UniProtKB/TrEMBL annotation:
Descriptive protein name: Auxin Efflux Carrier
Compartments where located: Membrane
Membrane topology: Multi-pass membrane protein
Main location (coarse class): membrane
PANTHER family reported in the protein's UniProt record: AUXIN EFFLUX CARRIER FAMILY PROTEIN (PTHR36838), SLR1864 PROTEIN (PTHR36838:SF1)
InterPro entries recorded: Mem_transp_PIN-like
Species of origin: Crocosphaera watsonii WH 8501
Keywords: Cell membrane, Membrane, Transmembrane, Transmembrane helix, Transport
Pfam families assigned to the protein according to its UniProt record, in alphabetical order: Mem_trans
Membrane-crossing segments per the record: 62-84, 123-147, 159-180, 186-204, 216-236
Amino acid sequence: MTVLLPAIIPVAFIIMIGVIAGKTLTLHKKTLSQLSVYILAPALVADSLYTTTISVQNATRLLLGVFIVAFILFLLVYLTSYILKFPSITRKSLIATSLHPNNGNMGLPLVDFSLGAEGLERAIIYMIGSSILLFGIAPAILAGTSFKNSFKVTLKSPLIWAMLAGLSLRLLRITLPFNLGEALHLLGRAAIPVALIILGMELVNTSFKVTNFELISLNFRLVLAPLIALSVGMIIQLPPLDLQVFILQSAMPTAVNTIPGFFTN
């Protein structure tokens, strides 16, 4: 708690600024979201992978852990839905809300404030794996699209291209001239506060209603997921810092863009 409280308070403070801004200013949330998705977040990913100190082995373990935790959660949610005889749409909704944590808008700043720059590097690796699941695999399973179409959607994600750009710069040992590396770093650092402000603006128009579905989803997302992450992380022998990041990211609430992406078609 002594570590998390100094991380939670600044995050809550910036989110509250977003709430106030959403109520008092005529900001265009869609414009801010596009700025975050297409410019700031990709810059953060590219900069992190370009300057990262994490080894390929550790990054691979983190990604493997993300997929294992998601698979275990999928099996548990599917089994629970079968036992409780949920209809298909409810089962799919529960799978979507349980498998996809908000490890971007909320997870990255919490890790950054609590575990610093090295923790943030690992949190971004987690977010990349989670994005592959969210945009590349989940639509094929939940929305009935083909894996080919899901792969095309994945390739349209700016995060994927930012990942490839950052890895290419690092592997080829390219030094960006004219302080362009610093410019990339500045853009990336802007991603976290902007994302939190957008999250605060989202809360202005969010209605809160708790039913049995929300309670079940909450327990899967906030209780079971981090416990599974702890077990999986220990089994695949994640180093202490990687394990801390892995558990924190797995304990985030449901991503705000989960349901619309799967059930609009």
